[in-house]
């Protein structure tokens, strides 16, 4: 233990990393909202009104031209991996099931929001895939932490900053081109 002025320096560093993680999570949540709820539109008037509910997993929502669209399934899981990573970083002392409830809850929020505001389908398949993506993210961070110890916080934050900057640049290009 490395003590300075009665405070464990490692705890101080972890607190600093968690503050950065919190900011990254908020930025990611805002980007996710723009992608999922606003369908990357700049104006609400451009959104197509759609209100439907699918309670049968892997039914019509993933069927394209009579075949299962695996890209839809994989994309939904991938987009929620960071939610799991950020959750595991911010709540590293929580039990696994409690951590997994966070991506589930966020996904449920998005599905209900799409239904209420008629901006998309409320789909159980999305809820399942998003939650699975979040769980993968939790496992990725837990594995990274086992390998790197507390340095995992720094490594993941640096990687996340780079990813967020790249996503913001891509979004800016999309906005500019439209």
Automatic annotation (TrEMBL):
Pfam families given for it?
Answer: VanZ (PF04892)
Q: What is this protein called?
A: VanZ-like protein
Judging by the UniProt lineage, the source's domain of life is Bacteria
Organism of provenance: Peptacetobacter hiranonis (strain DSM 13275 / JCM 10541 / KCTC 15199 / TO-931) (Clostridium hiranonis)
Q: Which residues cross the membrane?
A: 20-38, 73-91, 100-121, 127-143, 155-177
Which UniProt keyword terms apply here? Answer: Membrane, Transmembrane, Transmembrane helix
Tagged with keyword Membrane:
yes
InterPro entries in the record, alphabetically? Answer: Teicoplanin_resist-assoc, VanZ-like
